[in-house]
Amino acid sequence: MNPSTVAYQVMWNRLISVVEEQAQALVRTAFSTSVREAGDLSAGVYDVDGNMLAQAVTGTPGHVNAMADAVAHFIRRIGRENIRAGDVYLTNNPWEGTGHLHDFTVVSPSFHKGRLAGFFACTAHVVDVGGRGFGADANSVYEEGLHVPIMHFAREGEVDETLLHLIRGNVREPGQVIGDLYALATCNEIGHRRLVDMMQEFALDDLSGIGGFIMENSRRATLERIKALPREVAEGAMTVDGFDRPITLKVRLTIEEDRIITDFAGSSPVDKKGINCPLVYAKAYACYALKCAIAPEIPNNAASLAPFEVTAPENTIVNAAHPAPVALRHIVGHFVPDAVYDALDKIIPGVVPAEGAGCLCNFQLSLRPAEGATGAVRAEVLSFNSGGSGARPAHDGLSSTAFPSGVMTMPVEATEHAGPVIIWRKELRPDSGGSGAQRGGLGQYMEVGAREGHEFDFSAMFDRVKHPARGRRGGGSGGATTIARDDGTEMRGKGKQFVPEGARVMLALPGGAGYGDVGQRDRAKVRRDLARGYISAECAARDYGLSETEIARVQEAVERGEEAQ
Amino acid sequence: MATTTNRLGVDIGGTFTDVVLETDRGQFSTKVLTTYAAPEEAIIDGMGQVCAKAGIAASQIGQIIHGTTLATNALIERRGAKTALITTQGFRDTIEMRTESRFEQYDLNLELPEPLLPRQRRYTVAERVDASGNILIPLDLAEVERLVDRLAEAGYDSIAVGLLHSYANDVHERMIRDVLRDRMQDAMVSISSEVSPQMREYERFNTVVANAYIKPLMKSYLSRLEGRLRGEGVTCNIFLMHSGGGIISLENAAGFPVRLVESGPAGGAVFAAHIAARYGLDKVLSFDMGGTTAKICLIKHQTPKTSRVFEVARSYRFKKGSGMPISIPVIDMVEIGAGGGSLAHVDAMRQIRVGPESAGSEPGPACYGRGGDKPAVTDADLVLGKLDPENFAGGSIALHPDRSEQALTHVLGEVLEMDAGEAAFGLAEVVDENMANAARVHAVENGEDLSDYTMIAFGGAAPLHAGRLCEKLGVDRLLVPPGAGVGSAIGFLRAPFSFEANRSVYMRLSEFDPATITGLLEELRTEATGFVRNCDENAEILTEYKVYMRYAGQGWEIPIVLDAAQATAPDAKTFLALFEADYAKLFGRSVKGMDVEITVWSVNATTPPEHVARVDAAQAAGPATPTGQRPLFDPALAKMTTADVVRRADIGLGETVKGPAAITEDETTIILPASRGAIRQADGCIDITRTKDTP
User: Fold this and answer.
1) What is the mean pLDDT of chain B?
2) What single-letter DSSP state applies at residue B688?
3) CB A400 within 8 A of CB A386
4) How far is A83 from chain B (nearest CA, A)?
């Protein structure tokens, strides 16, 4: 080992820090709520061939792994010979970016000493791209909004005003969208500056040396993990609600000596509505699920992702081809890990969790003045919320916590400043965690209305209404999603629905499923759950067999603010 | 007789309680072990020691300023009182649901930290205020009374009240407080609109809960302390250092104990700011490295950077999101798990990783010979020649280089095919790079370029690593002040009486309302000034105005400083111009055509900074006399060098030392890389500058 190997260790650390700075710059300058409050973004650095070298820890898995493939598309489309210093490229192409038109991916070449040294790329979800607005209702991608194919955002530092003009004219919140595009370009610029500093400090002319070091060590570490697994084949499946007919995801996992193949053959065909998923996004979540279970601490880069191969027949719901509508591709994408785990559990038992809420429980409100109202306004408000995650082999599921997505919820007080919306309730939903030796995470209750003088369209993006999370190894199901108006009027789990002035939407978001036999549950935890109200007295008696005396003892302790021991 | 020239600074830290007495005849300090069961005992002990050294009686002390980690520890160790939360119906679980995200995305077995209060201690009442402060559901007093009677029956010691949008309208919180005072006289009450009137319910509720949770404990500690000090003959006032780097009265501290969190590190930043003032430095990076963590803070114009929210009790490798947010004015610092005791291992990618696991004091680094078999930063420092095995901690702890080599070889070398020396080099480079990265990211987040900064290093391990850190950061000048081992306690003595009051009130520049603004700022000024008046009835008080602004739609505000004229006669145009200039500085450009909004208003009242005498640059007076030489590894040259060894005490005014060199003292060693040279200044600072390019 010579000192240069110590230097490579330092440089790898530095590259990860560089992309983290890039991501933080995006969080601070972005306008879109989903980026700034929820962390729905990704940032990374690539070698001259478009192989990802490092990626920011900040970000969400769907973007992370999908963006890994994007830069190669940019190099191909722009043409290597046309790449100049100061250029910035962008696209929101679902198939060459990160899966739907709402995500813009921006790529900037990084030049050092007059030569191309690599690329920076970042992705963010923008607030609007025109079309029908964010929701499942479109019949093709053409209805979902403006498509910007891979092209220049700036040529040698000169921003393309025609493009901006065109975008401005086609989206509902032009200021915010344009602001976000600039934020994306700026964050790449910050990454670039820091990379050049690093190359100067270490007297590098190019990134081939450090790139090789990263790739070699990542590949070896990943392959070691794969080699340690049994060479087996297993199948898994999961059915969820879909738009108006159920969707089945089928997974066949094949573990070979140096790769894992995830094949989605047999999954449902493309849907008529915008819940289809381009392969790149399904692949992102399949890789994420496997990495979590097998090689969680190995950083994402081209070499550590390469051994995870994903295939799906064209025109299945996980490999929707153009022009299928894909706006809510996250719904199917977020279910991919549960489907993959159904198969993986058969190969390495005792590692993966039971099924959870899966997809984020999002909704968008389009608020407008009710007839005759004065002082009312129009506003679009997007809200991210989470159900419960599945119980783990040795731990309860996480209540109202996103998995597999990495996004955060927005504070209610911030949401109520963003538009004339009132969130009347947002709290845990007792009894929604599936029973078991380990209990599923709780879902949550929400009640959503508008300020006086407003009515709204409620764009629902929920699942698990008819297909709650299934338990593993004897664990019980999680609570199903319910949605209705406060007067009892039924509502659908997906699609745009009108809510008149004064009415509220009552939501019960799904819980995670349980793990293992309920009889094995630690009695102290049952009493604790009852004391805290994670489970009701009825549930404690029915599912966990707590006696009346025990229940009374707990309830009496609760009156004193205690938990019975 | 008590005289204002005798001032005592006391910092209770995790391991040591540092006591500094300043008199007109000089500074006297001591370190005694923290006495966890009764922390005031260590203070009495330390005070006795320094008074004896100075030859004065306790009754002659004119002022005592105290900072403590007790509040932080009570939160980390969950040793608070039996506390209940009263909140808005529908929001019982806000402090448990957090941000609904996982702070570590790839850990399937991740556990989230438990909220301070379990669910059965969180109660709700029907009421609702909207974002503009309008009442949607009025509070029913009868319901509150019934609830309070239940709480009394349950025997709670402390009650937190946190209602939705109470920063915009606090009437319901005040009504509940009145009922509590009336029907539950023995319980302590904290309301969120007083403790932390800021938007974002999770942070605000958590802050008021934390305040309520530690209030009985801190109140009892502070009154015990006062009693013990009086018993020793102390007659002077006792003040507390707060998280924002200023001083408040004992009484106010007992009411808002959450403001005492991280007061020790805040003192360190004030200490560095004072050194910056002595040297007239406008851009300073303070670097404080101890046994388990390193803290880095930006100090501009001799004022530490502040923030409105921070995270305490991080439970998972110091990872962001794994602790609990506290929204109070605080000195903005990055803290990472990198200290002398931080342990190294090799990960799956054959990368050396250092920290945050620490060897602590037991067993300590391998070289202590107390059974530690994993290599710590101190082991690498020893093998690289940065420490003298015979003279560590003034010779009180004998170090064993062979144990260090063994641990380095076994844990790192055998995996990576390195000898002990190379492994030590790798370990030291990784930990230095970790700290450099933390500093870089912090600088970028604040729109700063570190290359024109000066570093001020203190804390036991900092002088060993600061030189290399400067090389990595491109920082040309480094000051190592004397007394660095008790820097925080000295900082307490430099801090002003101050209090920052702030509040969330949304206003778009397109709806700019000067009358509301002047009213609001005046209200905040009165509140902040009241705290300072509590410390000193007559002192001159300076007022600093700050507003937090952003483009409407963004989630990240940037602080904009207003001068008195701009605050008393506000106009939208000026606000916009100030914002655009700062935004462009931070992010390279401003955004045209977007409305701008103000989200938070803040007023800091402070006594004027004490006059600091400038230190005149010393004239070079020839090289200091080394006591010998020893081998020292130079990381920039990547090879062993022969370094002069100089005792700090032997360096006369203006005498110089040329790197590579080791400047030794009892508490620490200053390592001068080959690229640096040092000169001793009049105040005892070792002033280190770049003399040649780092290769």
Assistant:
1) 92
2) E
3) yes
4) 23
